Backbone:
């Protein structure tokens, strides 16, 4: 990541945001032991966003993807 900020909350939850290149940003949050990730991919002329959760195998899977959006790489 070219930039990264992590916020540790008193209850142990964390929020990490970072930028990977000019066109990609992700935010990872942990709430009650569960991780979720929000990914924003900006490629002209569109912006795609994905909400993902980690599956049992440790892979990120889309849990919300707006209609008409392309799949995350």
Residues:
């Amino acid at each position: 990541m070219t930039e990264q900020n992590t916020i540790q909350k008193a209850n142990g939850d964390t929020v990490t945001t970072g930028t990977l290149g000019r066109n990609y940003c992700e935010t990872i949050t942990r709430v009650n032991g569960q991780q979720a990730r929000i990914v924003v991919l900006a490629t002209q002329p569109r912006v795609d966003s994905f909400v993902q959760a980690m599956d049992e195998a440790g892979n990120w899977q889309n849990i919300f993807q707006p209609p008409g959006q392309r799949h995350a790489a």
Q: What stands out?
A: The longest strand covers residues 34-43. Strands lie at 3-8, 14-19, 24-31, 34-43, 46-54, 60-64.
